[in-house]
């Protein structure tokens, strides 16, 4: 026959194992709820020069598929015709004129403005870019990566 302390130890171990499983399952469920985010822009890519917008000449099958299966902006624009301020506005969600020195070409981007890739990274997302993320310019703090690390 089993003594009481043996049964209590077994019961305690079972509770610990079950608790671990519940925590792991809830973490997995939380990760599954988060959407994947792909934000793609291209300099000087005018509307409607993509298949998804009905262009009969330009073939963009990968972008067309992403647009069909995700979110497609139908009315997106920036208020600056220059790359550095318009990308700063996109990354922060602010008008370029609100970015102080960050509103200029070849600027020093102020530390006080957080970017959405930085917010996503702080919340467990893997972020990064290929091509040109922001600039030309530099950040107030050396080494700050406004759009995450460059993908290799």
Strand and helix order: HHHEHEEE
Helical content stands at: 25-40%
Quickly give the structural class.
mainly alpha
Low-confidence stretches: 10-14
Count of DSSP-assigned helices: 4
Mean pLDDT: 81
Main sheet strand line-up = 1-3
Main sheet attributes: strand count, strand direction, barrel closure: 2 strands, parallel
Shape: globular
Please provide a written account of the structure:
It is a single chain. The chain has 152 residues and is mainly α. It has 2 domains: 33 residues; 111 residues, no CATH class. 37% of the residues lie in helices and 7% in strands. The strands form 2 sheets. Strands 1-3 form a two-stranded parallel sheet. Strands 2-4 form a two-stranded parallel sheet. The chain starts with a helix and ends with a strand.
């Amino acid at each position: 026959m089993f003594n009481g302390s043996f049964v209590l130890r077994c019961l305690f171990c079972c509770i610990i194992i079950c608790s671990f499983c519940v925590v792991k399952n809830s973490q997995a469920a939380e990760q599954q709820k988060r959407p994947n985010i792909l934000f793609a822009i291209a300099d000087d890519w005018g509307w409607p020069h993509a298949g998804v917008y009905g262009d009969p000449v330009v073939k963009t099958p990968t972008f067309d598929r992403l647009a069909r299966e995700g979110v497609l902006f139908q009315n997106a624009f920036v208020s600056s015709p220059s790359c550095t301020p318009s990308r700063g506005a996109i990354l922060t969600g602010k008008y370029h004129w609100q970015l102080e020195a960050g509103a200029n070409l070849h600027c020093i981007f102020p530390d006080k403005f957080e970017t959405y890739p930085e917010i996503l990274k702080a919340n467990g997302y893997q972020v990064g870019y290929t091509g040109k993320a922001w600039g030309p310019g530099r950040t107030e703090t050396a080494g700050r990566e406004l759009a995450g690390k460059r993908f290799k």
